[in-house]
Task: structure prediction
Amino acid sequence: MATLKELSQREELLAGGHRLCAGCGASIVVRQILLAAGKNVVVSSATGCLEVATTIYPYTSWRVPFIHSAFENSAATACGVEAMYQSLKRKGKLPVDEEIRFIAFGGDGGTYDIGLQSLSGGLERGHDFLYVCYDNGAYMNTGIQRSSSTPLGADTTTSPAGKVIPGKQQYRKDLTDVVEAHHIPYLAQASPHNWKDLTRKVEKALSIRGPKFLNVIAPCHRGWRSGVDQAIELARLAVETCFWPLYEVENGKVTINYKPKTKKPVTEWMKLQGRFKHLFNPENEHILQRLQEGIDAKWENLLRREEGSGQ
Amino acid sequence: MGKPVAMTGNIAVANAMRQINPDVCAAYPITPSTEVMQQFASFVADGKVDTELVTVESEHSAMSACIGAAAAGGRVMTATSANGLALMWEMLYIASGNRLPIVMMVVNRALSAPINIHGDHSDGMGARDSGWIQFYSENAQEAYDNLIQAVVIGQNRDVRLPVMVGMDGFIISHSIENLELLSDQQVKDFIGEYIPLYPLLNIKQPVTFGPLDLQDYYSEHKRQQAEAMKLAKPVILKVAQDFAAVSGRKYGFFETYRLEDAEIAILTLGSSAGTARFVVDEARERGVKVGLIKLRLFRPFPMEELQAALGQVKALAVMDRCDSFGAAGGPVFSEVRSALYDLSPRPAVINYIYGLGGRDLGIAHIEQVIRDLQEIRQTGKVKELITYLTVRE
Amino acid sequence: MSTSKLKGWKEIPIGGMILEAGNSARYETGGWRTFRPVMDRESCKNCLFCWIYCPDSAIAVENEKIKGIDLRYCKGCGVCAHECPANAIQMVEEAKL
Result:
């Protein structure tokens, strides 16, 4: 596991001059992942903030080979690249001493929703690649529309907090659970505030052959309506409140990587975000309650699963 | 010269793929092209090819994986039909826009709804603006020959475009006919080594594929694509010439039959050309000066060459195995008619929409077309510009 | 944008490929800034948190030591100042500098 000092000696693989928003969580996530991964990777990305803002022709921020093809197929595109690698490697058409790893990025739109099928296919077929979802909980690139990752009650442009309906009416999909059902060798949830945990997970994932998955929370102050300097604070609070538990599943074994000493109420995380503002009105208290109950149930379940799988 | 063998169109095509031995093949089964991939999967399983076969979960992912694989830097093929091609639609434009010479067998089939699994051209014609080179084949031999040539055309430095080769579903794909295969070595020599352009897998020279291309450069990239289509034409002829040297079989943009002194003519593509040729012979025996033109290449569209070939014709019937609802006739008709607009005198051009969803085109139907053309020749008047043939009233 | 500097279709690589890796470094986003991070070298403990949390690769590090802020790319988000455990970074309005 690399220390910050060691990481700082490595080459910066996401060049400055990209046009992601000031204070964007996704770029922090991607920088950390590339620092951990090193130069011998090929990256694919779904259409989304990350892709459009890092590759505005004739400029690219990528210092590693990069391909974007469409929105719903970051996994399938990466699988194609990886298949060609396996083929050419077998035929002796690539340098023998050169190992290449494959990383596919997608936002929650490109992963939980439109790209779910392509992700599932890639995982099931056993391609040797790491899929990273940078999850900001809505379709931020098109202007903050709800996704299946948007938390219950959140105000988005397609689940607005109106006079009758107070924001999104459904719990979020637990994609990490969906991925787990594919029984891949390694999957984890991570957060950029805990760079040590995130970079360790990337290094570990890339050392394992076969499909791997990382779900990384990526605060978006535009969509969350939070302070421009709060990306890391909000990522940290998401973990401290157990909204976003840090855990990994390696060959079926569940390990929780961080357990808060005192689990903070989810409102601690929510109150910094304008998208939840309406939920603090007395008439919406029941939604806050439901949210907290959902988080508690999932956390308890995770604790039980860790205990169960340790035996 | 290879020895004659009897096989279906699908098996012939799978054998072309075996001989081409692509580095990656990503496909999803759909009738009537399924058999191509089944047969090819057997070749993989038996070690007759060393292709990485990616059995994706949809056609959209098939083309996505083909794009990733081609950008990675190797030879890539796939096959599909109808709704499968329609599901790829978004990715077709991305394959051509990224200038990736993927080769795809399209076993042409009608599009839903209502669902129909039989041969017509609505799938291929729906993809006519997607930036792919398009061939249509009359029989299994042509499908085999076209597919091998497609590899060489697409990978040409001046072209760098994906190529789709069509053959009519069931009519060709599932019918057994005699054909000649080249030897494995001949195919290997003919297609040569694949040289990738800026491959993703060259990590020493990292490139970016598929950027956001805004108002300042998108037009220039599209202009390049237009140029590549233009440059493809001489390449297609040169490859055909080289292919003739190996196989003895000659190809051009289209094939003409008894057209030299023809006053009226029929233009068609795909399997119906065989029937049309037979009826033309019959009519010729009766003294009717009728000829046939079978279009092989639809993209790039051989506009000037068609003008030159059809200049002396007084009336021409264009056969479309596909409708283009609400348009100025079927897709082949509207382009052929536009191509002939500059001729003076200009032939009368009429359109027949026929054979949708695999409906047979019989001898009597083509005889009716010839009668209609003769009437136009005599009266100088077009009664029906667009006729639905093989449809019950 | 001046159109005179833009290249014609014959002068650019086909397929929209970008052949120069990381060339966005030539596109400086420092102009987006309204607040500038100002670092107090005395208080800096060189923990490198500002560097690992910067969304814009705008914290310059040399030999494991913070060298300064690369104002060519810094968009002034203030994540570095917010996360600095030593309070060594202040966000100062550009206009006041």
Summary: Strands of chain A lie at 41-45, 66-68, 101-107, 130-135, 186-190, 212-217, 247-250, 253-256. The CA atoms of residues 40 and 100 of chain A lie 5 Å apart. DSSP finds twelve helices and eight strands in chain A.
